[in-house]
What we know:
Organism: Halalkalibacter suaedae
Keywords: ATP-binding, Helicase, Hydrolase, Nucleotide-binding
Radius of gyration: 15 Å
Shape: globular
Largest sheet: 8 strands, mixed
Protein name: Helicase
GO molecular function: helicase activity
Low-confidence stretches: none
Amino acid sequence: MQIYPYCPLKTRTIEVGGLTKVQLIQKLERNFIMMNEYGKRLLSDERFKISNVKYNLETVELTVRNLGLPNGGTTSHIFKRARELGLVLCPLELGPYLRLEYRDQTEGGQGNSVQNQAPVGSVTIASEILSANDEFPKGFYLRRLSDGLWLRGYVADDLHIWDPGDHFIFCKAVGV
């Protein structure tokens, strides 16, 4: 089994910050980025903080399997394992900026989603969870469908097991 950093992965440098929340929403709309209700709820929540100063983040996209979890794992288990490997959680504000930059995502297809599983072709952004409430969105994921690019929020309880093939994005720790 190939484990980070000796595994297939995608890295990106993303510029984050410098916009107000209103400006960020307008930029998403101008770029025809669609959002589900969970995504809108996250973005509009008062706990969703944005930086008015621009900064760059180094991101790493890899599968749950490449974290050394061949049978998948819960969100907390995945986050813990990533930390052990030197990766860190992303700021929640990365989601919209990453969606604006990552425009060549592979299409996931329509109608192939299974309830309580990450949709085919989706990429979940590992970020701090704002609320323990199982009904409140835990973070963002990116998806491309035939109708365009999506920034979506998701819900998952503490018992949800992510598939070994599910894709996550983490940030590289500063100085790594």
